[in-house]
Amino acid sequence: MVMKPRTISMETFKKAFVFLLHTFLLSSLPFALNSVSSKRTEAEALVSYLQNLTYLGLSLNYFIVKIPESLFINLGKLEYLNLTGIGLASNNFSSLILDIFGSMPNLKILELSSFEEKIPSSLGKLRNLQLFRLLIDSPLNSTIPSELGLCTNLTQLILSGSSLTGSLPLSLTNLTKLFGLVVIDSNFCGHILLEEIPFEIGLLTNLTFLNLNGNRFSGYIPQMIGSLQNLFFLDLSVNLLLGQIPPTIENLTELRSIDIFSNHLTVSKLSKGLQVLNLKNNYFYGTIPRIFPEGCELQYLDLYGNQLSGTLPLSLVNCRMLEVIDTGNNSISGSFPFWMKTLPEFRVLILKANRF
User: How many domains does the chain have?
Assistant: First the structure.
């Protein structure tokens, strides 16, 4: 029996090559670097060998010797660089990272963490950058450099870390291609960004995913948020926001999830297409507003831990897709809402610690 040779697609070949290259770098590069201090010629040979790289992933390592500066300076063709979770401080790399980006004009994806310097302003030289993810792990407070607004091809910006302070620079409104903006404190200790949400955030009209969870944003949500016509997911939880969610939120027909628990907010308008509304622990007082129109697509409603009174609004029957209601720990009264049996998808009802 003669076996026919199998062919593979170019896309499969590329994926396999990237995987093998990543594996090679993680297994072979630390060994090569360990000999750099004694054999300069080997280091130069390594740099020469890697100068055509387009993908470099060194994440989750802890190199025991200094990474040669020339390794990064000569990577002019690099499009992807991942340095997350590696011991940069032991390599004296923290200071080097401030200067390398000017030599990487083709970089499209950059992921960094665990260095002990401020965010470098040289990031603004990366004019082709499309995704930037940074975890700040530093004893020094850092601010987002205004030069980041020069990276006008950015589509995803992810920043987190308890030492991040200051405010979102207005230059970020230049990032008109941005569809994902995440600024969070993922360490769950301390807070970041003690400022108001800038009014100009409404200029980022391509945003579909906005997550500012776990910061110290104060003041009011700007009316301009109603200009984010493509917004799909909004998370402003665990901040110091107060007042009312702007009625302009009703204009966001693509919006499916609003998560704003642990603030001081109320709501008066909703878009019909909204599926998830989390208003938990918001010092929300008075009666539950009649904001559930016919055709409402709400599936999950969490009003736990507020100061609500009165009865559950009958307009909730308009939400034919509703599955979960949590109104626990309020002062809601009235008879048991048997009328909810008309909701065909209804699964969970939490009424504990009320006045039924």
Answer: 1
Q: What angle do CA 181, 185, 191 make, to 5 degrees?
A: 120
Domain with 214 in it: 55-67+78-97+104-350
pLDDT tens profile 272-281: 899 999 999 9
CA distance 131 to 109: 5
pLDDT tens per residue across span 298-320: 999 999 999 999 999 999 999 99
Q: How far is it, in rounded angstroms, from Cα 93 to Cα 114?
A: 11
Q: Is 214 exposed, middle or buried (0-12, 13-18, 19+ CB in 10 A)?
A: buried
Please compute, for residue 140, the number of CA atoms within 13 A of its CA located in the half-sphere on the CB side. 9
- Does some domain include residue 295? yes
Cα–Cα distance for residue pair 33/20, rounded to 1 Å: 19
Residues in the chain: 356
Which tens digit of pLDDT belongs to each residue from 81-110? 887 776 554 444 555 555 677 788 899 999
Is 42 within the bounds of a domain?
A: no
Check whether 24 has a pLDDT greater than 70: no
Residues 6+ apart with CB under 8 A from 151: 123, 124, 126, 127, 129, 132, 175
Model confidence pLDDT, tens digit, residues 318-330? 999 999 999 999 9
Non-local (6+) Cβ contacts of 125 within 8 A are 101, 102, 105, 150
In the prediction, which pLDDT does 194 show?
Answer: 59
How far apart CA 246 and CA 109 sit, in angstroms, is: 35
Structure tokens at 146: 């205004």
pTM as predicted: 0.82
Question: Strands 324-326, 348-350: parallel, antiparallel or unpaired by DSSP?
Answer: parallel
Q: Are 162 and 186 in contact (CB under 8 A)?
A: no
Domain of residue 204, CATH code: 3.80.10.10
35 part of a folded domain: no
229 forms beta bridges with none
Query: Which has the closest alpha carbon to 225: 253, 262, 251, 243?
Result: 251
Alpha carbons 247 and 267: distance in angstroms, whole number: 8
Taking CA atoms, 43 is separated from 49, 80, 84, 92, in Å, by 10, 22, 23, 17
Say if 307 falls within a structural domain: yes
